[in-house]
């Protein structure tokens, strides 16, 4: 059982330092930073945090591969892996928030495939090159610096076909499903993973929104925060996903209670412990609590670290 936290690029640097300190003290697996267009670049924040990390992996996730050449992504990931002494993490997906640059890129799935193929070539130091439909890599030495090892790589998707495709790449260590908090949908994901990688051995990471209710007097305020977050992010990250229809949720019949239950770790410490237990029991191997964490995110993170995580042991 692994625990991580994912944060958005909308905070001052001191906030990330405080969060990392808590994760270090309580032995979380990783701190994941969203590389969402229009927010602070996650690479910059990751490199600044790296000297303060001794045990926790630091990673850039949801890299919008339809806009970023994998040579650039791979180079950054390898340098981050160097400065973290082998504790870097990289999350690749088709990306979101493309409207920030007034574009809707085509061939996002092919860009994802080309990105993984080129990362595989870079990390294995292959000189064969790669000819893709969106991205290519010439033959010869692509990176002009020495490197060893590679980061942990997660592929992100909630759709079964894309999940199977991601799992067909040996370089992908695990599948991350944003907003996955419905134990029943886990079986759909696991089936898709098995089709792509019959041998298994890949992690399944649930990365739900998370709002911790610190005091019962704050429950209404926390609920409003959760609803605002869902309204902002859900269309970007889950629109068109079978997770919605699987939960019986449609735009025409949008029940906020059902949305909270299926996509957000919401409640006090005891409630989140119960929800987390159900996710692990269903087959998830790694839970990454996502933004906004709570009305006071640092206090909420301390609750997750001190009152939720200790209930679970390997």
TrEMBL record:
<dbReference type="GO" id="GO:0016705">
    <property type="term" value="F:oxidoreductase activity, acting on paired donors, with incorporation or reduction of molecular oxygen"/>
</dbReference>
<dbReference type="InterPro" id="IPR050564">
    <property type="entry name" value="F420-G6PD/mer"/>
</dbReference>
<dbReference type="Pfam" id="PF00296">
    <property type="entry name" value="Bac_luciferase"/>
</dbReference>
<keyword id="KW-0560">Oxidoreductase</keyword>
<protein>
    <recommendedName>
        <fullName>Luciferase-like domain-containing protein</fullName>
    </recommendedName>
</protein>
<dbReference type="InterPro" id="IPR036661">
    <property type="entry name" value="Luciferase-like_sf"/>
</dbReference>
<feature type="domain" description="Luciferase-like">
    <location>
        <begin position="17"/>
        <end position="286"/>
    </location>
</feature>
<dbReference type="InterPro" id="IPR011251">
    <property type="entry name" value="Luciferase-like_dom"/>
</dbReference>
